[in-house]
Every structure is written in C-alpha cells, then in structure tokens.
Amino acid sequence: MLIDSVKGVEPQTVKxxxxxxxxxxxxVTFINKMDRPGRPALELLDEIERVLGIPCTPVNWPVxxxxxxxxxxxxxxxxxxxxGDDVRATLGPRAFxxxxxxxxxxxGATHPFDRERFLAGQLSxxxxxxxxxxxxxxxxxxxxxxxxxxxxxxxxxxGATIGTLDPDEPAFSGFVFKIQANMDPRHRDRIAFVxxxxxxxxxxxxxxxxxxxxxxxxxxxxQFLGQERTQVDEGYAGDILGVWDGGALRIGDTLVxxxxxEFEGVPRFSPEHFxxxxxxxxxxxKQLKIGLDQLSEEGxxxxxxxxxxxxxxxxxxxxxxxxxxxxxxxxxxxxGVAASLRALPYRYARWVTGTPFDPxxxxxxxxxxxxxxxEDRPLILFDSDWALNQAIQENPALTFTAAVQPxxxxxxxxx
Length: 415
Hints:
By secondary structure, this protein is of the alpha+beta class. It is built from nine helices and 29 strands. It is globular.
C-alpha cells in the first residue's frame, strides 16, 4: 500500500484496501515522498489506523522531512544513522531531540510486529522513504522479500461445491489477475498475467479455460523486468507468467490442467465518476469499439450502454477521474481514435436484481438513469445518495448491489 506523505490516505486507497480486507491479503505499507514538505509521520500513522482500521507497526522511521530529510532509521538500531554528527548538524539540536523523543515514544505507543497477524491482513508493517531520491527503497525491498508469504491454499468452486486447493497439488492451475493491451505497440499484443497456484508449468502445455471449457495453449509465455521480456520455459506455484492472449481471457479466469474448477473471481465494484465518449470522427467507430473493448477488459474503467442507443456514445465509469484522461490518451496513441469525454452528473452506480423491474421507472434526467453493462446486466446511475436511498425505499422487491462477480455471458463489445 503506497501512501503519499503529503496527501495521506486517498479515496482510491480506501477502495482498494476494502478489496484487500475482503480477501485477507497481507498489506505492507510504504509512505513515500518524505523528501517533500508533508504531514508528520505520527499523524500519517494515526490516519492509516483511523481511516482504514488496520493497526500499524513502523519498521523504520524518517530522519527529518522535506529539505532536511537525510534518511530512515532502522528501529532495530542496526544502521547507526543517528550516531553521526552530520545528522545532528542537518536537523539542528531541537529537531534532533524531537526525533529521539518520537523514536522513544514508538516503543510504547505502536503495535509490536506479529507475523501471524500480518499474514492474516490484521497488521501492517510500515516503511518510510523517498522513491525520487532512492532513499529507503532498497531496505524496503529487502525486508519485503522476507515478509511476503509463500503461496497459500486457495478457495475453489466446482458447480455449487466449495473446496480448497493447496499449492503443492501436482496438477497445474493458474489465476488471471491482470490484463494489459498493447504492451508492445508495434505488435498490438495483449498479455494476460497469470499467477501459478499449483503444480508445474511447462511452456507449450495445453490447459483448460475453466470459464469456457475450451483448451488453451500456453506456448508464448514471458516474464517482465522493466522493458525486458524473458521467455519462460517452466514455473511453479507463486510464479507470475505473462501469457500472450488473443482475447479469450478475462480478469478472474482460471486455467487448469486437471479436473475443472474455478477460483473465486475478482469482484467488479461500482464506479463513482461517469463520462460519455463521443467520436470526433464518426468514421472511427469501429476503432473506438475495439479500443474500449480492450481497455475496459484491463479493469481501469467500466463500460456501460444506454438501453436505446446501445453501442453509440458508450458510457465510461471509473473510481477516479484520472482514469478518463489515461483512456483518452491511449485511445489516441494506440488506436488512432480522437474521442471527447463529457462528464455526467451521476455519482453512484448499482446493479439491480429482483422482480418486477421496469427500467423506465428509473429514467429521471439528471437524477437517475438505467443502463446496461457489457454483459447486459441492468444497473442504475444516481446523482446523489438521497436519490439512491429513495429508490431503495420505493422498491423493496429489488436489490441494489455495489459489486458483482464477472458473469459468463458474452460481452456486448466483443460481439
């Protein structure tokens, strides 16, 4: 979990944290930009605990901040950073004394590290540093390697039967957790990132795509380090594979070499910002469709459609408005499509289930509207929590859901 020392806990961090909490994922926290004038370290720790509800245990502590930031002190005392005269001279007698008081205060005021609580997602070790000046980064990475857990048991589903899978099971299985289009713009490639969950991977092996039941050949597999790609010939539980994919895979898919089952998928959460995409050149409609199809499959934005206009003027939803700028840039750079994005007044989206459901009842321009997602599931966009709560009260037979699991239906944009 990356925290900006100036901004603290941001709204998108809260949303991502909820996913981690839901899955019991261990969280290591890095507080960045200590080389800039920001908020006090103790205040940042307090905000993390108060807003996210997870206890923190600082592994190191910033020595100075902003222009006086000289490094991070390992709380084990092994670095000797505080023993030199240079630190005292840089901070000054008063600031240095305050630093020593803070470090002493941490002994009784913070939570001791407990590995079992950390692995259960109930305690977060915290590191400070500056990525820009490369201070505290190597220490963080070294400790992260020691802290990170080995592959663990995962929940599986076969029909209505819930089971578990251990990483030492002999049959290969993998989980698609990320998709990236156009990683190499020259070749228009689409890479699915697959975590091996059990068994052994061998390049060229054929597995089963659990969602479709079809065979899937894993002949083109790579690993990444920066811009470098290395061909992968074999892999084991915990390894990450970049698998070339022509469009068959989605985030949350399961690949298996033995009896078919599926891992628990990645839930799709409702966005809070919405825009309508309009083509500057109507002749580029096909390119827009392809671009939005591929980019929305990466998960950065969600794609919705007006029930009457369908694929014309699609609606994009995102957690943060920056995602729209990125999508607009990538449409132009990677697909040659210039599109205008017009903001809509809506702030809440809820998928709707139950009967009787008449979408026309939710058409109140500027306040709410009924749309469809790429799997033809209805959802309502609301302009305020008041409109949402009123809809819930007036429609007790309907369920309004903020998150759904990806379905098995064929997406509209791929049709």
